[in-house]
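Record format v2
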Amino acid sequence: MMLAVRDICADYRNGQLVLENIGFSLDRGRTLAVLGPNGAGKTTLLRCINGLMKPRHGIVRVEDIDILNLHPKAIAHRLGYVAQRNEAGRIKVFDAVLLGRKPHMVWSLSKADLSKVSGALDLLGLRSLALRYLDELSGGELQTVCIARALVQEPSVLLLDEPTSSLDLKNRLDTLALVRRIVREHHMATVITLHDINLGLRFADHLLFLKDGRVFAQVEPNAIKAETVAAVYGVAVDVIRHDGQKVVIPKMESDLLNPKQGVP
Amino acid sequence: MLFCAALFVAALSLGAVHVPLREVPRALLGLETTGAWAIIIRDIRLPHALAAILAGAGLAAAGAAMQSILRNPLGSPFTLGLSQAAAFGAAFAVMGFGAGVMQSTPTAAVTVVRSGFTALSAFGACMAASLIIIGIGRLRGATPEVLVLSGVALGSLFSAGTMFLQYFADDVQLAVMVFWTFGDVGRAGWREVGYMAVVVGLGVAFFSINRWNYNAIDAGDQTARGLGVRVERVRLVGMMVAAMLTAVIVAFLGVIGFVGLVCPHIVRRIIGDDHRFLLPATCLTGSALLLAADTVARLVLAPHVLPVAVLTAFLGAPAFLYLLIRRSAGS
């Protein structure tokens, strides 16, 4: 098992529970999409997994090592994290990706660090942008740079917090396809929080629905039901098949006006 | 680097008494030990110039580090009230403990006895101010604007405190305190230069060791934590070192504004935000700016010498305004 999360409970300073007994596990090469409405605890869950936030209790194991008690640097060797918001300072793409080698640096850079950054740039198609400044990049390019930075950390597990929220349609599809390819080829595992259920259905191997800090349902994309989505988001939906794949579509406004249909 | 060296020689050569350029290296190397020129160069202008170089580098490096640590483009010892706090601490030492006693020496009108103690007091006040800033920064929802506003508030508070002390000071103490609010590199003798060299050297070395941490914080707090950086600790220790640099420089030379704010921004415009290059370049720019300002300060009203802080403000304030206008026009 690559990543195993057991009984995670977390609260804010006022003592209000944000996460209650969250648990799941993930194999090598697999992608888990965490879905749920705003405030359901998706971001908090990711932060608890890599120790950015101390959960009240719970266990996170990466390759059978309990990681929450490790030094931050040792955690960074195992988990790569791409935050929801990323600053684009006046720094070159190459140097921004090089920052991902930080957990591995002792005093200064080694040749291996530089060649790993080169490799990541090639892998993600960023070679031509290497000497551009971050604040000149588009949203999609910046997101790819941040993913490259997390990859050169050489983690076993990649955590992506809403990587698609600021991207257009093509960039969403490209970014997630790229992540899935890399995760499979490098035998990593990845947890991605998403707002778009259909992206989850298309790219993830498992879906985890959070509601009010609890796991509402954990399903495979092919087993998704309209009732689950309706109960989690409070929106009546249809689940249809398109090109052999399930797709969730909110009911038309005329249907929503009559709440007896659709919502169980 | 070359520019800095040229400026250094020029600073030694120019002044109320003009020493020919070719005599400067000779005096430095001790080839001519008896002449008046050698005394001027070695005992007056050399510590003067070295103090300008050290203070410029120290203040500029502190400013660059604070801008990153506080995630705020307006971070600098001066804008966040640290300089004013240090001046208050120094004034407090003068007033309460009789630390500063006027002495007339051939090199300066006022020198301070027990300067180590004054520096300590300045450091204490400076630390208090930086802890308040960090504390405010840790409150949830403290935006960069809030930080700068609280820095301005702290600055005025400490300035008011200094004024309060001045009001009750006797003539001698008042003279010493007023001298403090006009930063002047001419106040430094060889001993002060020695202290400053040690503190600035250690401070700049510390900032350089942390260059990757500052780069990581620039990428966002969450990203930095994800990379294994202990953001809170880096922030706290970095602010303490910046406060220490500021305290020592202010304690020996007085308040010198705008070097810490403007120099990092000048460099950022040219070579970007990467601290591996930003820090050394900022130090050089700070040294060059203060050295130039000091040289001009000694020349404009020669044989009178203006306090260098007057010139850095004359130079810095328009540059700062330009920066603000350009920033709002650009984005």
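The two ends of chain A are 37 Å apart (CA to CA).
Chain A has two domains: 3-223, 225-264.
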